[in-house]
Amino acid sequence: MLRKTITLLYIFLLILCTAGCWNRVELNELAISVGQGIDKEDGKYKVSTQIVIPSEVALKAGASSGIPVTLYTGTEETVFEAMREITTVSPRKIYHSHLRILVIGEELAKEGIGKVLDFYARDHEYRTDFFIVIAKESTAENILSMLTTIEKIPANNMLSSLETSEKTWAPTTSVTLHELIRSLVTEGKSPVLTGIEIKGEPSIGDNVQNIEQINPAAYLKYTGIAVFKRDRMLGWLNQEQSRGYNVIMDNVKNTVANVQCPSKGEMNFEVIQSKTKVKGTVENGTPKIEVSIEAEGNIGEVKCAIDLTKPKTIYELEKQTEDSFVKLTQETIKTVQEDFAVDIFGFGDVIHRSDPESWKKLKKDWNEKHFTDLDVNVKADIKIRRLGKIGNSFLPEMKE
């Protein structure tokens, strides 16, 4: 019995030793993909993948440096096949687990992105926390071909710019694969994705001389939010409407609002803290939504003759700012209702959670009938906390 136990233990230890690294791949055998793009070309999927060149990225400051990335493409009937076709030009196996951003061409987005998302959600080599954006009036391949300043790796530049813009300006929204799929399968909410475009001359964007200039002739810029119905893109919200969307979705961390002064002129209000609550009710079969915005902030710039030392002035500015926020959100909602007729705000989901029984009757034709005529009441409560380093502006006191 003892001999049998020792033998089994010995076999078990041998199994542990032999199974440790059976599928290992050395780092120098991999091509690390940080950005990928999907387009539709002649009925086929064209996959572009941005690969980091380790020898260029690792160069110390002061050393001569070439382009830090390369772009491989493959075109086939399916995304999976196109991805595998890239191995015919890549000397290394593509490693996908470090993917930071996925760019989808606008034409493909209008056709439908569901099949593309199925591949990325299904393949075990991909994580689900990479961000997805739409190439506005361009192809994903052209976007990924652009070289960028500051960040040597363009995909990292795109990621950092997306996150920074969302945190400090709020015209963009960061959407991961996991979040996008959740929006697609959630009743009463249609998905959105941020757009990215090429400003300037696209043909020189992949030239290293372009980024060696103080003012590059071509560069990438995030611009507006793409509206979807199911998995098909319908159109775009402009920058102001995109900010209005983020206010409603409680996705504003910091932004700047241009506000009319009580008298002639304008002032800027910097939001430093914001909270939006959305409540839904159904009264006699009619759904209603209430949006409550609470925000605190500072005065960032004054271009009018007002006395900031008076509490009455601060109160008037707060009311003007409240009116500005209400107007922004109401106009955004109206635009989406009239131009797209899809509920990107998740108002239907709010009704679903607050009154499940009523939602069963409303959900069938929610977008086409109920959302387009939905009564949305918006109210705002704004508090000004600080005036900046100075009180009243010196502009009215300047001598002739």
TrEMBL record:
It comes from the Bacteria. It is found in: Membrane. It holds the Pfam family Spore_GerAC. Residues 223-388 form the Spore germination GerAC-like C-terminal domain. One of its GO terms (biological process) is spore germination. Keywords: Germination, Lipoprotein, Membrane, Palmitate, Signal. One of its GO terms (cellular component) is membrane. It is a lipid-anchor. Residues 23-198 form the Spore germination protein N-terminal domain. Gene3D superfamilies: Nutrient germinant receptor protein C, domain 1, Nutrient germinant receptor protein C, domain 3. Belongs to the GerABKC lipoprotein family. This is Spore germination protein KC.
